[in-house]
Design a protein that fits this description.
Length: 482
Amino acid sequence: MAGLGFALLPFAPKIAVDPHLALALFIAPALLYACYNTSPRALRRFWFPLLSLAVFAVLVTTATVALVGVTLGGLSLAAAFALGAIVAPPDAAASEAVLGEVGIPRRGLLLLQGESLLNDATALLLFGLASAFATHSNTAVTPLALAAAIPGGVVFGALAAWAYLRVTPLFARTLGASLADFAVTFGIWLLAERLHISPVLGVVTFGMIVSQRRPIGQPARDRLQGAAVWSAAVLLLNIIAFALMGLQSRDILIRLPSAERWPAIGFAAVVLATVLATRIAWVFFVRFVEGAIASRYAPSWMPEPPPWNASVILSWSGMRGLLTLATAFALPRSVLGRDLIVLAAFGVVIGTLVLQGLTLGPLIRHLHLGEDPDLADEIAPARKQLIDAGLAVLPVGGGEAAEALRFRYGAASKVIADSVDPQATSEFDELHLQMIARQRVVLHRMRDAGEIAEDVYRRLQEELDWSEVDARSYGDNILKAT
C-alpha cells in the first residue's frame, strides 16, 4: 500500500524500468527467499497437489486468460498468452501474511509455499516463450532451447551451490555474509541468462541446496542477520514494484483516449474474474480427483485428501504479487497491446489483494478451520530432546553455573509438559523479563543523567535486547503483518 500510495501522489516522478533488468532485480532475490522458507520434504510428500497447482493450474489459468485476451481484448495469441503467464502464478507471501495470523492447518501453508516457489518457474518459462513469439524473436526462448535450458539451469545452480558452500565460511561474522548472498543470487541469474539456460531453475536449485546444506557451524549472528536482511529486502522490493506499477498504470490511463479508458478498466476486471474463477474451479476439480483416487485405490504415494473446507481456503488463497508485477515490467515494449496487458496485470494484483486479502481471515473463521495441533505436537518432543542433549553435557556437581542451567532448562521442560505451546515462556523466563524491564529503566536513567557515554549505552542496550529476545516465547518474537 505504501508503494501504491506513492504512485498516486500528483508530484510522483516518471520512472521507467528496463525490461531486461526487471526480472533479475525483483524475481531473483524473491526466489531465493522463497527457497529458504520451503521444505524439500514437503515438496516430496505433497508432490501430487503441488504438481496440480504449480504446473497444471498455471497452464490452465494461462489458457483461459489468453482466451479472454484474444476474444475481448483484441490481443494477438502470443500477447494474450503473455498476459496469461503474467497473471497466472499466485504469490504465497501475500496469503501467508493473513494466514499466519489467523492460523490454518500446516498442510495448507506448506502447499502455498511450495506452489509459490514452483509456479514461478512454470510461469516464467511460459512468459519467455510467449514474449519470444510476440516479438518474433528466435533467440530468446524456443521449445528446442528449453530442452537444454531446464537441465542446464539445474546443473548450473548445483555447481554454484557447491562452490558457494565452500567459500561462504570466509565471510563468517562479517557484513559481507548477507552481501555475498545477494551478489551470488544476482550473479547466477545474469550468468544463466548469458548462457541461455534457465535462471529461475538455477536460482531455485542453488537456494534449495544452500538452505539445506549450510555448515552447522554458521555463526548464529550471521543467520539472524541474514533472515532480517532478506525479509527487509523482499519487503522493499515489493514496495518499489508497487510504486513503479502504479506509476506505469497512471501513465497508461493518461495516455489512453477518454473513450478507451473504461473499456480498458472493464477488460482488467474481466481478467480478474477469470483468474479467480479458474483457480476455484481447478482446486475443487483436483480435490475431487484426489478423493476419487484415495477412496478407490488408496495409493501409498498420495497423502490423505484435505477436508473440503480446507480446499475452499486454498482456492481463495490465490493473491498475486511481486512475480506478476515484475513480469509485467519485463514485457518487451515492442509487444502490441503492452499497455492493456500492464493495466490488466496491475488490476489483477490489486483486485486479488483487496478482495481476497480482506475476506480470507473472516472466511477461515467462518469455516472454523483453525490451526491444527500437529506443529506443537512435533515441536514438543524435538525441543525436549534438545534440552536433554544439552543437559547431558553438564558436568555432575559442576557448581553454581551448572545448577543454574539445570534450573533454567528444567523450567523449559516443565513448559513442554504442561503448556499447549511448547515454546511458551517458562517461570524462569517471566522473572528474567521482569529483570530486563527494570534494567532498561536504570540504563536510560544513566544515559539521561550523563553517567555513561552513548556508545556504552548502545552496547548495553543491545545486550538487553538479545536477552529479551531469548527470554520471550517464539510467538512473541514473530513480526506481524500489521
